[in-house]
Inverse folding.
């Protein structure tokens, strides 16, 4: 098959969406399929075309005219947006005509979705829409246009995937007519990497937390909980891997709480580094306030580590079994859970996580599920 993956964001950015698309592209290529990736070219500093992991990546300026540009005093962008959007649409059309994909897979219903919708109408190429989180429980509630866009894109889709049952149900709340063509495909994990990575070296035992430093990841709650628990867990540190808009605020919080010697920010980390940090920790804490799936929790389980999570999103669908802990996102309850998990770890002879077989979460299995959906979408429009 010839498969065009259109995604809101891609490498070198890091996050759940980027991880899914990169691994899916790699697996599809290894199986002999021809793959191209199209993503946003914002900011413009990124190359318009490059090869990443052996896959051609095209970046187009998916910008739509918006009054928000006026409110943000970006008058020039407001004036140029119509022209830029037409140029992006023409570039995408030329790319589709040249590549001749059998199927277009849109990952995340964002700004690029309207362009994919238009191309699908013009070329009649079957399209699959893959939902990842904020495109379901975030953007549709920001404006009537974005809610219309979401419904229209799902209506025109030949198949829909969601990364958890929770997210699928949220999508159907917005667009009930999609029930007949939606399928849950869980995200995956590199099992070999997280089982065999060399443990990160740190001079003290540590709890690991990984993710973008943004409000919904809840690292502020974790730091408060760690502060309360600290007197009872002397000598244990907290390592936070990731970067984002909240880093300065979180570092300030650590200073105010007097935790500068025990809470450390590692910055953005490669997948290999993340695997190493998880392999060396006592357990992984994931205090997300919103989490459509939760790849970090899956990575922790693959590494044989317990994970502490909140009862949110798709996490309870795969991370609720012992010795993992699902604890309400209340600071005092998380402080108690941190102490209990550390005690359990210190008293355990074997800390291998007792979870069901994780092979169903291998990227190979995930890829096979997507291929099945692609074929169904193609068959639905075949004469």
């Amino acid at each position: 098959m010839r498969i065009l993956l259109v995604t809101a964001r891609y490498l070198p950015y890091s996050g759940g969406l980027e991880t899914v698309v990169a691994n899916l592209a790699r697996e599809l290529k290894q199986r002999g399929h021809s793959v191209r990736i199209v993503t946003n070219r914002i900011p413009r500093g990124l190359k318009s075309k490059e090869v990443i992991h052996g896959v051609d990546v095209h970046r187009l300026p998916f910008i739509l005219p918006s009054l928000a540009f006026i409110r943000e005093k970006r008058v020039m962008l407001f004036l140029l947006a119509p022209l830029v959007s037409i140029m992006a649409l023409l570039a995408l059309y030329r790319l589709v005509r040249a590549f001749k994909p059998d199927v277009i897979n849109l990952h995340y219903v964002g700004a690029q979705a309207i362009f994919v919708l238009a191309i699908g109408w013009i070329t009649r190429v079957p399209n699959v829409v893959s939902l990842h989180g904020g495109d379901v429980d975030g953007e549709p509630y920001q404006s009537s246009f974005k809610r219309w866009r979401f419904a229209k894109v799902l209506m025109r889709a030949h198949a829909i995937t969601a990364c958890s049952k929770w997210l699928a149900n949220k999508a159907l709340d917005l667009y009930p007519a999609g029930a007949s063509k939606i399928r849950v495909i869980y995200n995956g994990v590199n099992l070999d990497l997280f089982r065999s990575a060399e443990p990160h070296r740190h001079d003290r035992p540590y709890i690991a937390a990984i993710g973008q430093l943004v409000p919904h990841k809840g690292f502020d709650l974790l730091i408060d909980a760690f502060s309360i628990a600290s007197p009872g867990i002397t000598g244990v540190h907290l390592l936070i891997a990731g970067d984002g808009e909240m880093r300065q605020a979180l570092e300030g919080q650590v200073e105010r709480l007097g935790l500068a010697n025990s809470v450390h920010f590692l910055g953005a980390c490669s997948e290999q580094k993340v695997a190493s940090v998880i392999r060396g920790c006592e357990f992984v804490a994931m205090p997300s306030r919103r989490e459509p799936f939760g790849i970090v929790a899956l990575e922790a389980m693959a590494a044989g580590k317990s994970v502490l999570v909140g009862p949110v999103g798709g996490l309870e669908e795969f991370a609720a079994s012992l010795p993992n802990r699902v604890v309400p996102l209340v600071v005092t309850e998380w402080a108690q859970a941190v102490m209990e998990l550390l005690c359990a770890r210190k008293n355990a002879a074997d800390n291998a996580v007792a979870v069901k077989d994780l092979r169903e979460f291998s990227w190979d299995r995930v890829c096979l599920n997507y291929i099945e959906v692609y074929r169904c979408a193609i068959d639905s429009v075949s004469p």
In short: The domain at 2-188+362-381 is CATH 3.40.50.2000 (Rossmann fold). The chain has 14 helices and 14 strands. The chain has a mean pLDDT of 90.
